[in-house]
Amino acid sequence: MSLLKPFSKLPGLCTANILLVESEEQFQQSLADALMEETAVTVNVRLAKNLPLPMKNEESRPRIDLVVFIINLTSELSFQSAEASLKFLDPGYFLGKVCFLVTNARNASVPTERLDAVRKLAASLHCPLLFAEDQTPDGVTNATERLLTILKVAAGLVPMATALYLSNLTRCTVPPDIDQPSFD
Amino acid sequence: MDPSDNMGALNHMVEAVALDNGPAPDSSTGQKDALPNDMLRIKQQMSNQCFEMAVQLQAGKSKRSCSTSEAERDLPDYVKEMERVKTINFNSTLALHRMQMWHAIGEKLKQNDSEAVALKAVNDRCMALCSQIKQLQQESRDLQDEITEIQKKRLEMKRLTHEKMKEMEELMSKKGHPETEKYKAVLEKGQANLEKYKKMIIMAQNVLRGILLACKVNWLDDPKLRDIGMTLEDFPISD
Known about the structure:
heterodimer; A: alpha/beta; five-stranded parallel beta sheet; 5 strands; B: mainly alpha; elongated
């Protein structure tokens, strides 16, 4: 099994590498364009549909600092694909180098159980759960800013802050009454 | 999406220098000024990576078969410990900054130019204010001491008054007691005598009435005899 390992390579000078995993391959493109506009740090964006990543790029791929799973709540396939990809990630990534990004959470056709399932997954892995709006440029910019903040910490570019510490502050928690019906 | 060629070359060169410990290649002559900064940055990133690897190893080492709830219970303790260490670190940094600032001020004063004069003036004013503060604090402390002394004296006075009042009450109750005893005895004797005499008088009156009736004297017409006869019930007998 080819696991993606966090520390098998050396970090690059003033560089941060982010991997966006999305089974629909839509939002990741606009997100990648917005992320590339960052000037203070060299951001390398790598896109993938799911893990495991192809072996032929193994040598040239730099150290991935942050893995972002983009889950579209309107499709069940998206969630299942993300869940299946989790197995190909080395456990070392879950100490703050994995993030879940959810889109279309406000859509009326989304069953509430899916969001609860995503929440439970993020909480069990102690990862932050971000909500993004992918249709407007403002939404893309907002999501980019938040991802950049986490990315800079995960890449070790922020002094006195490590990815594990930040994930402790931002990790997703499940409210105790999540299984009870909500007043929607 | 790949790093620019410049950065790539720099990266490889830094790695080469760090790992091989060999002489820097010739292409570095133009970038020698940026090299120490970049070395420091790459050092920081490397130390971050090493720290995270150490954390992961540590996590793997202490792998107990505990549930997440147990770990969650321990979490606040660890967070508290981290907060404590962070506070200590922050305080030490503050102290360091203070020392650095004082050193800078000292150096500036040694230079003896216009800014140094301004600094000295401010410094003198600070000293004057500080000595004034000290003096006022001393005065307030003395006044506070005096107040405390007076309060102590007042409390002492109160205590003494209280004791004296208690003594007085005791004395008064004691003095009343023997007098009432004697008084009681005399009173009882007097009352007994009174009763005896009352009975004698009533008996005498009854006898007199009997005599009057027996003599068949018309006592209604004579006022003196009527008085004697009618005033028999004025002396209630207390049994």
